[in-house]
Design brief:
445 residues; mainly alpha; Flavocytochrome B2, Chain A, domain 1; two-stranded parallel ribbon; 7 strands; 5% strand; globular; lipid metabolism; fatty acid metabolism; FA_desaturase_dom; fatty acid biosynthesis; transmembrane helix
Length: 445
C-alpha cells in the first residue's frame, strides 16, 4: 500500500471488512508495461491483463495508466453501464476519502462543469443519431459512385470522361471516409453492434481499408491528441518535427534525418500526395495480414474486386490500377488538409496530464461553419465538439457548440475558430516555424 492507503482491519464475526483505499501517489506508481491501474469515478481498477483483450486496443487504454480516466471512459462508451460489467472483475479498491476525485491538481470545478455539460447534451438528446441524415448521406455517396460508372458507360473512356470519373470517385471516397468515421465512433446507431457492422461495410467494402486498424489508431488520437508517444498522428517517423518542443530536442541532439528547416516545402511533395496511396495502403495491408485479421481483409478485398469488375472493361487491368492510384492521390490531398488543419497548428508536446476539456482544446481548433465546410470536412470543422463528445452524431455539433464556447469562456480555455483558407495556411506556417526552431537549436545549442 502507498501513503494514505489502508486495507481495512481484520474483522471478527459480524464485522464488515472495508474496501481498500488508495492515494493518487499509489495509483500513479502503476503505470508501467507490466503493471497498469487507472481510476474511473473514484474506483481503482487493475487493467494489466485486461489491456490485451480491450476492444479498442492495448494502447488507448494503457495511455491512462496511473491516471483518472473518468471523462475518457464516458466519452468513448455510448453505454457505460454495459462496459462497467467488464470492469467489475478488475476492481481493486477506491480512492481514499481525503483524496480529490481529480489527479495532479486539476481544476475540480472545471471538470465538474464539463460533466454537467455532457449531462445537458444527453438531456437534449444530442447523442441520438438521425437515420434520415445518415441514410441520405450514404445515398449521396452511392449515387456519386454510380455516376462515375455511368459517365464512362455513356461517354466512353476518353480523357474528359476519365477525368470526370476520377473526380467523382474522389468525392465518393472522401465522403465515404467521413461516413466510416461516424460509424467508427459509434455515433449512427444506438447499438454498438450495428455501428460495427456499418463501419466494416463502409470502410471495408466502400473504401478497401480495415475497421480494426482504424479503431486502434484513431482512438489513441482521441484519447491523447497531439501528445508525443501517445498520439500516432503526430508520430511522423522522423520526416517532420512538430510543435515547439520536439524541434529543439532534435536540434540539441543533432538529429537530422531530413533538412527540417525546409519541411514546409517538402511537405507538399511527400505529405498530401503520398499518405493514403502509399503509407496508409501499405500499413493497412501489413496490419491485416500480420494480425491475421481475415474478416477485415475479406471486406477490403471485396472493394478491390468490385472496383476491378467495374472498371476493367473500360481501362483494362493496369489502366484500372492507374485509375485507382489517381483517385487515391487526389483523395489524399483532401484528407490531409482537412485532418491536419485542425491539429498541426495547435499545441503538440509531451504529456501534461490536463483534464479532458483542457487536453482536447489545446490540441484542436474549429473551422467556421458553412454548408460547404460541413460537407467538405464531414463536419470535422467542428473538431472541438467532436473531440469533446466523440460519440455525438455530427449533425448535432452546431447545437452543443455555443454551450462549449460558454464553458471555455468561463474558465479562460482558448476556443479557436478559423476560416478554411487561414487554417490550411497555418499548417504550412506551423511547419515552417518548427523547422526554424530545429535549425536554431541544431546550429547554436
Amino acid at each position: 500500500m502507498g501513503k494514505g492507503g489502508q486495507n481495512g482491519e481484520s474483522c471478527s464475526s459480524g464485522c464488515v471488512k472495508s474496501e481498500p483505499r488508495y492515494t493518487w501517489e499509489e495509483v500513479q506508481k502503476h503505470n508501467t508495461k507490466t503493471d497498469k491501474w487507472l481510476v474511473v469515478e473514484r474506483k481503482v481498477y487493475n487493467i494489466t491483463d485486461w489491456v490485451k483483450r480491450h476492444p479498442g486496443g492495448i494502447r488507448v487504454i494503457s495511455h491512462y495508466a496511473g491516471e483518472d480516466a473518468t471523462d475518457a471512459f464516458v466519452a468513448f462508451h455510448p453505454d457505460p453501464n454495459f462496459v462497467r460489467k467488464f470492469l467489475k472483475p478488475l476492481y481493486v479498491g477506491e480512492l481514499a476519502e481525503n483524496e480529490p476525485s481529480q489527479d495532479r491538481g486539476k481544476n475540480a470545478q472545471q471538470v465538474e462543469d464539463f460533466q454537467k455539460l455532457r449531462k445537458t447534451a444527453e438531456e437534449m438528446n444530442l447523442f441520438n443519431g438521425s437515420w434520415v441524415f445518415f441514410g441520405l448521406y450514404l445515398a449521396h455517396i452511392l449515387v456519386v459512385e454510380y455516376l462515375a460508372w455511368a459517365n464512362l458507360h455513356y461517354f466512353g473512356n476518353g480523357w474528359i470522361p476519365t477525368l470526370i470519373t476520377i473526380l467523382l470517385l474522389t468525392v465518393s471516397q472522401a465522403q465515404a471516409g467521413w461516413l466510416q468515421h461516424d460509424f467508427g465512433h459509434l455515433s449512427v446507431f444506438k447499438k454498438s453492434k450495428w455501428n460495427h457492422i456499418g463501419h466494416k461495410f463502409v470502410i471495408g467494402h466502400l473504401k478497401g481499408a480495415s475497421a480494426n486498424w482504424w479503431n486502434h489508431r484513431h482512438f489513441q488520437h482521441h484519447a491523447k491528441p497531439n501528445i508525443f508517444s501517445k498520439d500516432p498522428d503526430v508520430n511522423m517517423v522522423h520526416i517532420f518535427v512538430l510543435g515547439d518542443t520536439q524541434p529543439v530536442e532534435y536540434g540539441k541532439k543533432k538529429i537530422k534525418y531530413l533538412p527540417y528547416n525546409h519541411q514546409h516545402q517538402y511537405f507538399f511533395l511527400i505529405g498530401p500526395p503520398l499518405l493514403i496511396p502509399l503509407y496508409f495502403t501499405v500499413q493497412i495491408m501489413k496490419t491485416m495480414i500480420t494480425r491475421k485479421d481475415w474478416v477485415d481483409l475479406a471486406w477490403s478485398l471485396s472493394y478491390y474486386t468490385r472496383f476491378l469488375i467495374t472498371f476493367v472493361p473500360f481501362f483494362g487491368f493496369f489502366g484500372s490500377v492507374a485509375l485507382l492510384f489517381a483517385v487515391r492521390f487526389i483523395e489524399s490531398h483532401w484528407f490531409v488538409w482537412v485532418t491536419q488543419m485542425n491539429h498541426i497548428p495547435m499545441e503538440i508536446d509531451h504529456e501534461k496530464h490536463r483534464d479532458w476539456l483542457g487536453c482536447q482544446l489545446a490540441a484542436t481548433c474549429n473551422i467556421e461553419q458553412s454548408f460547404f465546410n460541413d460537407w467538405f470536412s464531414g463536419h470535422l470543422n467542428f473538431q472541438i465538439e467532436h473531440h469533446l463528445f466523440p460519440t455525438m452524431p455530427r449533425h448535432n455539433y452546431h447545437k452543443i457548440a455555443p454551450l462549449v464556447r460558454s464553458l471555455c469562456k468561463k474558465y479562460d480555455v482558448h476556443y479557436e475558430e478559423k476560416k478554411l483558407y487561414n487554417a490550411m495556411r497555418d499548417v504550412v506556417g506551423s511547419l515552417k516555424k518548427s523547422g526554424e526552431l530545429w535549425l536554431d537549436a541544431y546550429l547554436h545549442k
